[in-house]
Write a structure and sequence with these properties.
- This protein has 286 residues and is α+β, with helices and mostly antiparallel strands.
- It has 2 domains: 24-104, Copper binding periplasmic protein CusF (OB fold (Dihydrolipoamide Acetyltransferase, E2P), Beta Barrel); 111-279, 3-Layer(aba) Sandwich (Glutaredoxin).
- The chain has helices at 2-18, 160-175, 197-206, 221-229, 271-279; strands spanning 24-36, 41-46, 56-62, 75-83, 88-98, 144-150, 183-189, 214-217, 235-238, 241-247, 250-254, 260-265.
- It has a 5-stranded mixed beta barrel with strand order 1-2-3-5-4. It has a 5-stranded mixed β-sheet with strand order 8-7-6-11-12. A two-stranded antiparallel ribbon has the order 9-10.
- Strand 1 (24-36) and strand 2 form a beta hairpin.
- Bound molecules: copper (II) ion (CU).
- Copper (II) ion is lined by residues 151, 154, 156, 159-160, 247.
- Residues 151, 154, 156, 159-160, 247 line the site of copper (II) ion.
Length: 286
């Protein structure tokens, strides 16, 4: 018995050190709403993925260009979603038919209001931090701020969890760079109903977020959706299922006067790129 346990433990430890855990595979059924060949990406509106995530509309990377061949917006598909440690990717895509596109195209094109451009002032927004303290956006004036959007239960490792990992990497760099002591990070939840202050506080702890540098912010759901939309971020909620949130990504660099310096779309930006853009903003004079 003891020997068996030792063998088992050794196997577990060796396995953990030598290789990443195997990717999990899920079958997905849905419709292609758009294709970006150059990014090896398709926007898919899919049904529930049993055991993984609710019905959503999201961009997915495909493993290689051949999977996009002969596919067009409107195609009905079945596909295999392979979810590893850091990303989810489609490894097989089969066309099963074709249907008209939904009347309202989802995803990047859906932007219900004018998007703030670089150089415009970020409007005031009342937010609350992970301690439940009011944190109006204007309290970040005088700092260079990187702000992103996420939610703690996002199931896609290369979406919100990637934003968290990138910010964690940037925080490590900030701590080593006294010349960047005026930089702050803020992660704003798009799921305030679930992501209350205590939930955000626990989430921040798992990421080793230093509250002096990195805040997690929540607020009123409607206000937050409106706030996020101003940066071009689309959030679509399923009225019947609160866990079903389809969304895009935006990360914004804001200067000490409250002006937008740069907007990163999607998930392909790197911590080094964000750091470079934070460094390029002149430090505030005190
Ligand atoms: Cu997400």
């Amino acid at each position: 018995m003891k020997a068996t346990l030792t063998v088992l433990l050794t196997a577990l430890v060796t396995g953990a050190c030598s290789q990443a855990p195997p990717a999990k595979r899920y079958e997905l059924t849905g419709q292609i709403l758009g294709i970006r060949s150059e990014a090896l990406e398709m926007l898919v509106k899919h049904e529930d993925i049993k055991g993984f995530m609710p019905a959503m509309t999201m961009p997915y990377k495909v493993k290689d260009a051949s999977l996009l061949e002969g596919k067009a917006a409107g195609d009905l598909i079945t596909a295999t979603l392979e979810v590893g440690q850091t990303q989810g990717i489609l490894t097989a895509v089969t066309r099963t038919g074709h249907a008209d596109l939904p009347a309202t195209p989802a995803g990047e094109t859906l932007s219900p209001m004018a998007v703030l451009t670089e150089g415009s002032m970020v409007p005031e927004e009342i937010l609350f931090d992970q301690d439940g303290k009011a944190r109006p956006l204007s309290t970040f004036r005088g700092y260079v701020l990187a702000l992103t959007f996420m939610y703690t239960t996002c199931p896609m490792p290369d979406f919100c969890p990637l934003m968290d990992r990138n910010f964690a990497t940037v925080q490590v760099a900030l701590k080593k760079s006294p010349e960047l002591a005026h930089v702050r990070l803020a992660s704003v939840t798009i799921d305030p109903a679930h992501d209350t202050a205590p939930v955000l506080k626990a989430h921040a702890a798992t990421l080793k977020a230093d509250p002096a540098i990195w805040s997690f912010l929540t607020g009123d759901e409607q206000n937050l959706s409106h706030f996020a939309a101003q940066f071009g971020l689309s959030v679509m909620r399923n009225d019947k299922d609160p866990t079903d949130i389809s969304h895009t990504l935006r990360t914004i660099v804001i200067d000490p006067s409250g002006k937008i310096v740069k907007t990163f779309s999607g998930n392909s930006w790197t911590p080094a790129e964000l750091l470079a853009s934070l460094k390029a903003v002149p430090a505030p004079r005190h």
